[in-house]
Each structure stands twice: as structure tokens, then as C-alpha cells.
Amino acid sequence: MSGANEATAVRVRGLRTRFGPQVIHDGLDLEVRAGEVFGIVGGSGAGKSVLLRHVLGLLRPERGEIEVLGQEIARLSERERYDLQARQGVLFQDGALFSSLTVAENIQTPLRERLLLSPELLQQLTRLKLDLVGLAHDACHKYPAELSGGMRKRAGLARALALDPEILFLDEPTAGLDPIGAAAFDRLIGGLKRSLGLTVVMVTHDLDSLAAICDRVAALVDKSAVVGTLEELRNLEHPWLRAYFDGPRGRGALAAAGG
Amino acid sequence: MRGGAAAGAPTAPGGAAQAAPCGRSGGARRAMMDAWLTSTRRDDRLLIEAGGRWTLAALAELDRRRAQLLAGAPGRGRASIDLQAIQRLDTAGAWLLDRMAHDLGREGWQVEWSGAHDAHAALLAEIRRLPPEPLPPAPAVNPLARLLANLGRSTLAALAEGARLLSFYGQTVAVLARVALQPRRLRLTSLTHHLEQTCVNALPIVGLIAFLIGIVLAYQGADQLRRFGAEIFAIDLLAISALREIGILLTAVVVAGRSGSAFTAQIGMMKVNQEIDALRTLGLDPLEVLVLPRLLALMIALPLLAFFADIMALFGGGLMCVFVLDISPDQYIDRLSAAIWPRTFWVGIVKAPVFAFLIAMVACYEGLTVEGSAESVGRKTTLSVVVAIFLVIVFDAIFSIVFSALGI
Q1: I want to staple B218 with a disulfide (CB 3.0 to 4.6 A). Which of A41, A255, B41, B317 is the partner?
Q2: Residue B279 falls within a domain, yes or no?
Q3: For B92, which residue in chain A has the nearest alpha carbon?
Q4: How many domains is chain A partitioned into structurally?
Q5: Residue B294 structural domain
Q6: For each of chain A's 259 residues, which pLDDT tens digit applies?
Q7: Record: contact B30-A86, CB cut-off 8 A
Q8: Which of A111, A129, A164 is the last residue of a domain?
Q9: Residue A123 belongs to what domain range?
């Protein structure tokens, strides 16, 4: 069931991406260990979201190998890919909830698709997911357009968690949230990671998130990735990293986290 | 494959739980074979053992086992739940365990846990912390009451919509007057862009449809009139119906479907992206910037397209006459000039700007009333096309009545 290396959740080797003449990644390597919160940072256009789309199998790389939960995604059959998808949850930037369905129906979509469950069990599981992400029960019959940005993210997270995935991918989970909401979301992710034993991979701009919950960080610079703990990255002499961590916001966030 | 899995599943000691698989997930099939829930009764002690992979995939069957277990365990005393053998526990499994303990407690059992791994115990504690109350039910109503309420609501909504549409017409006319006084405010670039989109790019489809309809009219007319030996009058039929009605009506319907829907979708997406709000905050009037160029472009385009459609219909009908009905080109031209007056043409073409106004107004109005979601854009676009075609036909009927009253 699991691959050769149980402790590696995601492994990217020699990834090369090109859009027309523009090379986004070239020889990018990184490894996400099982059970950690892994942050991906980088300037605008550095290819953070593109990397995430590669790992999710939404984009095919020009060159390189990507393994998720020990399975190389380029070589999977339809069926294996379908099974793998049940083991990973994704939260897109603005939740990407299906706008024609209520929150409850959104959460139930993956459950209905994959399992035969009684209406009562479906209800109970929906309630459970709503509670896990801290969404009030009366939100469940609302449509996404009726929710605030923060609530949409939580509802999207509940849908991502519907199948109890082993890995959770988050694309800019705190973008567009106020600082209080963002901090609460960080705590939520940290708490879920601990209680559910999740591996979390998050693309983020948010230094506070990095400092608060990420175990290790990959910085996408020069078409490749520099991976390490926040502390290690701070001590590297790369101009982009220096500018990122030593800017006024970087120092503030790290100071607040006791770094 | 579902049946095969059920038949082939080995029975683990004490009754293996078996999930209802959806038939697709191999992981689910494996998981269901090794999740179990057993109980033994010893006087006032109930020993419950849970083991295997307590995951979502096995949930349905484990839930059935839980119900059986509870049904077979009336009485009171001490119930201990041993989790030693659980290999994997997810939130669904933890919820089920918690619920079982809860139900046992209600029956009068004193529940104690044993053997849980640290991670499992933490997850269980987390689940236990969550509030137990069920989800509020979806608001349910009597179907008859709902039908009546919907009827009333949509009647009121239609009336209000009509009033708003009328006020939108008024506003647009006011903006039109303002721009007429200050022609510099007219956005020429936008106007020509929309002219290209709605007029030039529509030529092929409008021309093709009119050409085919011309053929059909000539052929059907000749077929019927042949019985009276009046085949030649098929040309009258073709010319009058094409110029007065068919040319303009068909063009209007095509334009409503093609350009009306595009206007609604464009403006609707701009509304969703808050571009309309951005325009307003910049002191730009969306009516002037977005609606007016589209309206004027369509009012210029539709008469031109209708003219083109007329010509193509006469051309198609003429080809049919010459090649199939054995009428010579000279005869066709003679008959055509005898059958129609300039008035015949003008009666058709005069309707074009009115139809264009209706289509553009409805399309822009529906676009501006889009709210929030992609679904709303789709709904409004459909509505825009349906309402525009409906209004075009209503106004065509009104024109017919007016023209016949005037004796035209």
C-alpha cells in the first residue's frame, strides 16, 4: 500500500517547467516528510502555485519526477490516480466551493462520489467536518456566495477533509483574511495536523504562518528550491531570502514568533 | 464487483465488518476486510473489542455492527472498549467510537476505554470535545404552500423586474441624451469594437441562415402554388415575406442569441469581478461606458444585418427559382420588381433599430443584475436571450397591428 519510504509524503526530483520560452522551474528538488507542515514561499511568478499544480497532477512537467505518498503520479493508471486522490485533500485559494451547491452539499460531494453512506451517516459526517473546521452549523444550508471569505475557506477546508486525507495541500490559506482570522486559521491548521496526524503542504506569502506553524520551508529562488527550517533559511546569504526575511514585515513576524 | 467482494470477503473472528464499497476504490475494499467490532458479555461486564482499520471506507458496515451490538446489549454495568487492535483511526472511525460510547452510556452502561494508542487517544479526545448537537434540518415546507409562495413570489418579482427594466430604459435614454449633447463623451473605440463583434463577425451566420430560408420559402411556395398553375407567384411570396418579416425577425433572433448573450456574460463577469464597482468609484458611469457603446453598436448593426439577410434570402430564393423551378433570371427580376415596393423593404427594416434597442437593453440590464457567482452569470445569460426573443416577437406583433391599421 505504501511506497518504499513511508516517511516521505511528497518527493519532487529534477522538475523542469516551461511555459513557451519562459522556464519556471529547472532542476527543482524537494522532499516533504510525513507528518510535517511544509511551507512553500517565493516571489510573485516564482512558480509556487505551478509547483502545487504539478504535485496535484493538474499540470504535467516537462521533465522530472513527482511522487506523492510513494507513488509516482506520472505513471499512475486512472484507477490508481482516483485512489490516490482520496488520500489527498486540497484547499484552493478562495475555497473553490461549487457555487450551485450548499456548504453541506459541497462537503458531501466527495463522500457521495466514493462511498455508499446512509443519509444519517452523511449528515453526521458533515456535522463532524463543520465542527473540525470551526464553522457554525447554521452555515451548512447556505450557498458559497452568502459566506464571508474566511467562512468560504473553512468550508473549503471541510470539503478537503471530507475523505480524511493523509496529505492536505493549501494554496495561500491565509490570503485575504484579516490578521485575527489568519492567526485563527493558522491555529486551526496546526491543531488539525496534530489531532489528525496530517501532512500539510502550504503555499503561502504569509510570514506569520511560516513562523507559527511550518516545520520546514522551501523557498523557490533561481528556478529551484532551497529547503530547510526557517532558522536555516534565515542564515543563508541569498539576496532574495535576505530581502524576504530582513524586510520590516519579515523581522516583525519572526520577532513575534520568538525567533 | 460489489457482489464479488461481498462473497469473497473472509470472516474475521467474531464477525468482520464489511464496508459497502462504491466499487471503485481498491483501498476501500482492503480496508473493509480488516475492521472489526466484537463484544462478549460476562455478567454485568461488557467487553467490546474494536480493531483493524477504522476508517471512512469501512464506516457504513461498522455503523451497522454498532447498531447490532447496541441492540444485543440491554442492561447495565461496566462496559470496556478495547482499542488495542486498531491499526488506523480517522475522524470518521473516531466519531463512530465516540457515538457508540455515548449510546452505551445512555443505555446505562459505565463506559471505560483501554488500550488506545497515543495518537488514537488524542484524536478521540478531540472528537469528544466537539459539540454533539445535530445539524439543523434544511428548512422544509408543505409543497402546496411552496408552490403558491413561489407563484406569488415570481409574479411580484416579474412585476418588479418589469418596473426596474423600464427605469433602466429611462436612465439609458437620459444618458443617450447627455451624450448627444456632448458627443465627445461617446466612446468611439468601444463602439467600433462592438460593431465589429456584432455586425461584421455575424455576417456569415446571418447570411447563411437567410440564404437557406430563402431557398425553403421559394421551394415551399412554388410547391403549393403549382397546383393552381401560379408557380410564378412564389416569387411574390418569397419577396414579401422575406423583406417584411422573415429577414428582420430571423436576424433579430440570431443577434439576440449571439450578441445579447455575449453582452450579458461580459457585463455579468465584470460585475462578479467588481469591475463595475471600480468604474463607479473612478467616477465613470457604467451606463455610459459599457451600455451605450453596445446599444449604439447594435442599433447600427441590426439594420445592416437585416438588409444583408434580405439580400441573401432573395439570392437563395432566386437560385432556387432559376435552377429548380425553371424560371429564368430575367423573369425572376421582372416578377421581383413587380411584387415589391420600396415600402415593402422599409416596413421590414424600420423595425430593426427597435429590435436592436430591446435586445441590447435586456442584455445589458441582465448583465448588470448578475450577483456573486458563476451560476448567476449563466442564469442571467439564459434569461437575457429568452426575454429578448420574447420581446422581439411581441413588438413584431405590435408592428403588424399598427401597420395594418395604417393600411401599409
Answers
A1: B317
A2: yes
A3: A125
A4: 2
A5: 169-406
A6: 344 445 889 999 999 988 888 888 888 899 999 889 999 988 888 888 889 989 988 888 888 899 999 888 888 888 888 888 888 999 988 888 888 789 999 999 888 888 888 888 888 889 988 988 888 888 888 888 888 888 898 999 999 999 889 999 999 888 888 888 888 888 888 888 888 888 999 998 888 888 888 999 999 888 888 888 888 888 888 888 888 888 777 777 777 765 4
A7: no
A8: A164
A9: 101-164
In chain B, which residues have their Cβ closer than 8 Å to the Cβ of A164? 55-56, 90-92
Domain final residue, candidates A114, A129, A164: A164
B36 occurs within a structural domain: yes
pTM over 0.90: no
In a domain, A3, yes or no: no
Both B30 and B91 in one domain: the answer is: yes
Residue B187, amino acid: R
Cross-chain CB nearest to A116 (options B60, B119, B123): B60
CATH number of the domain bearing residue B81:
3.30.750.24
Residues B185 and B60 in one domain: no
Q: pLDDT (tens digit, 9 = 90+) per residue, A50-65?
A: 899 899 888 888 888 9
- Cβ separation B123–A197 shorter than 8 A: yes
Of A127, A128, A145, the CB nearest to B372: A145
Q: Are residues A22 and A138 in the same domain?
A: no
Task: Kindly state whether residue A93 falls inside one of the protein's structural domains.
Answer: no
Q: How far is B37 from chain A (nearest CA, A)?
A: 18
* Mutation site, A69, A83, A131, interface B, largest B CB count within 10 A: A131
Q: What is the mean pLDDT of residues B30-43?
A: 73
In this prediction the ipTM stands at: 0.76
> Domain tally for chain B?
2
Residues B270-305 have pLDDT tens digits of: 998 888 888 888 888 899 989 999 999 999 999 999
CA-to-CA separations, B162 to B169, B213, B279, B391, in angstroms, rounded: 10, 34, 26, 12
